[in-house]
Design brief:
This protein is α/β, with parallel strands linked by helices and 145 residues long. The protein is built from five helices and six strands; from the N terminus they run βαβαββαααββ. α1 crosses α4 and α3 packs across α4. The longest helix has 13 residues.
Length: 145
């Protein structure tokens, strides 16, 4: 058993892969868990928590994400301005009509580590309305979720 060793990926050895996700008809929370998994690199057999070996995820058709049940009417998007009395509540009905990428980013951020590593990984999330995106030169591979 002397020859068996656990290999870990060093941060400088990890190379980023570009993936394309079509969010049309996807449920917000289920899409967010899958995107967070790809951002962290947990889908890889060589997953190492301290190395950012996750993929760059390009999500298209963000405006066609759906919520289940009555969440569209009942769920509230909370943000705080930092001032006294600065709590701002926005119904998801309005948020999904105006800025659906905020809903997805918040859902994914809640599933990433709240540390320097998580802040680095959330920057690898690119979201766009419609099917066009400016990352064709990186040739992202389409994945089915």
């Amino acid at each position: 058993m002397a020859g068996l060793r656990t290999t870990t990926v060093k941060p400088h050895e990890a190379k980023k892969r570009w993936v394309l996700v079509n969010a049309e008809g996807q449920v917000l929370g289920r899409l967010a868990t899958r995107v967070a998994t790809w951002l962290r690199g947990k889908h890889l057999p060589s997953f190492t928590p301290h190395a950012d070996q996750g993929s760059v995820v390009v999500v298209v058709n963000v405006d066609k994400i759906r919520l289940t049940g009555r969440k569209l009417d009942q769920k509230m998007f909370k943000r705080y301005t930092g001032y006294p009395g600065g709590l701002r509540l926005t119904p998801y009905h309005d948020l999904m009509a105006k800025r659906p990428e905020r809903a997805l980013r918040r859902a994914v951020w809640g599933m990433l580590p709240h540390s320097r590593m998580g802040r680095k990984q959330i920057r690898s999330l690119k979201m766009y309305h419609g099917t066009t995106h400016p990352h064709a030169a990186q040739a992202p591979t389409a994945i089915a979720l």
